[in-house]
Amino acid sequence: MNNNEKSSELAKTKIIKARTSLIQEGRLGIASMIVPLALKEVSESVCSTMATDGKHIFWCEKFVDKCDEKELVFTLVHEALHVTFAHHLRRGKRNPRLWNVACDYCINGELHRSGEYSYWRMPDGALFERNYSGQTAEEIYADLEQKQDSSDDKTQGGNQGESGDDANGEGGKNSTGNEKKEGDDLANANDGNPKDFETAGEIWDAVNDDGKPLSENEKVNAERKLNNHVRLSESVDRACGSGASENIFRGRLKNLDLEIADYLSKIQDWLISVFPDETSWNRPHRSHIWRDTTYRSGNYLPSKKPSMHGWHVGNRY
Question: Please, is 3 exposed, middle or buried when counting C-beta atoms within 10 Å of its C-beta (0-12, 13-18, 19+)?
């Protein structure tokens, strides 16, 4: 093992140690969002900090070396929350660089609101704007885009196209003569990889096993699986009594609850339409047979079947 390989291993061990510290502190919910993300080292020219596509965490040795443990923990949690909020599935045709700026404001606002300052610290240059706290990435993006359009300074969004294909030519961003890292090819092929973005914790587009962009159906299936994962992680966090479920997962769970409530109301409407009120002879109408329980006097009339309007459709979470 040469010196470069040794330094890479030391940096990777530092990341694993930071990740393990979350487990040791009982932050099992957010840790369960981080652990499944495979670590992939990339060249500094490809990504100068860290990034995720929902399957991997891409990391730069130089960035890891200069961070202390609390800053590394923050960046790992930051990346995990990008995945939690499905930012890797929601860019669409938005500008990759401006989308990253918007997503960073969104995530760092959530982390700031969580109040968990004893566990992590924002690295220098991390994007935070109190006015954006509590807003979605889409809302922040729309505001940033409007400000960009009304200004002659285009540095915030850059001059690249929607997909950023202009920098993904032969050799990609790692065509600097330096030794290629294991994650360089996968990173350079990602359309959501912004160029010259140096803020800690990038978010790239989700890709399939072949490294290609997901189709719309694949995105729907991926988000469905992700929602289940998020709810499981929140349940683990709550069961451990860490309290983070109320803070870190708050924004995402609120959106999921609204989606589930709408889904359940549609199911209830469907049940009502399929099972309308009907009468039945299986049970006599009690109001007309009270005089004689043997049914030899009084009137034997049908009763109504139970109405679906009285049914409650709920989820099991």
Answer: exposed
Tokens found for residue 116: 């968990």
Residues 184, 175: Cα–Cα separation, whole Å:
10
* pTM of the full structure: 0.73
Per the structure block, which two tokens stand in for 313?
Answer: 């459709």
Q: What is the pLDDT of residues 108-159, one digit of tens each?
A: 988 887 766 667 888 888 899 989 988 899 999 999 999 988 775 554 444 4
DSSP string across 23-57: HHTT-HHHHHHHTTSEEEE--TTT-SSEEE-SSEE
CA angle 136, 137, 143 (to 5 degrees): 95
- Closest CA relative to residue 99, chosen from 188, 152, 160: 160
Is residue 244 within 8 A of residue 29, CB to CB? The reply is: yes
Nearest to 145 by CA among 175, 187, 101: 101
25, 71, 85, 177 from 47: Cα distances, Å: 29, 17, 22, 16
